[in-house]
Design goal:
Length: about 140
């Protein structure tokens, strides 16, 4: 009796598993907000942000003086502009709720905007200067 180790089905299965393993081994892109939000992974230089807070930094890489906002002092689903002339270039969302950041200080959707999940999202470099945000119910 001769044992066949590689049937067409076995070869196809091994090829598929090899491709899957290779795809999983490639680290996700970290340059876009969506990729950063999807990973939920913080780098070694990430900013400190406590659970329940939205933290904003004026410089990329979590640099400068951090501003924090909590649900207790933030209206849900209302546009919250940053203080006059203030912008953010990095953020961490630990509110437990989705947060949309806006390039417009009036939360206008004609400029750039992105929504980040609330489970723990660190964005070391926003693709635009954040001037306002909204915290969503869920």
């Amino acid at each position: 009796m001769r044992l066949r180790l590689r049937t067409p089905h076995t070869t196809a299965l091994l090829t598929g598993l090899t491709a899957l393993a290779a795809a999983l081994a490639v680290p996700p892109a970290t340059g876009t907000p969506a990729a950063q939000a999807a990973t939920g992974v913080r780098g070694a230089a990430s900013g400190d942000c406590a659970a329940g807070q939205l933290c904003l930094w004026p410089a990329a890489g979590f640099g400068g003086k951090r501003r924090t906002y909590e649900l207790s002092d933030t209206d849900i689903e209302s546009c919250v502009p940053l203080p006059k002339g203030g912008t953010a270039a990095a953020l961490a969302n630990r509110t437990g709720r989705p947060v949309t950041t806006y390039q417009s200080a009036k939360c206008a959707e004609t400029a750039e905007f992105d929504t980040y999940p609330g489970g723990g999202t660190w964005v070391p470099r926003s693709p635009y200067q954040v001037r306002a945000f909204k915290v969503w119910e869920r």
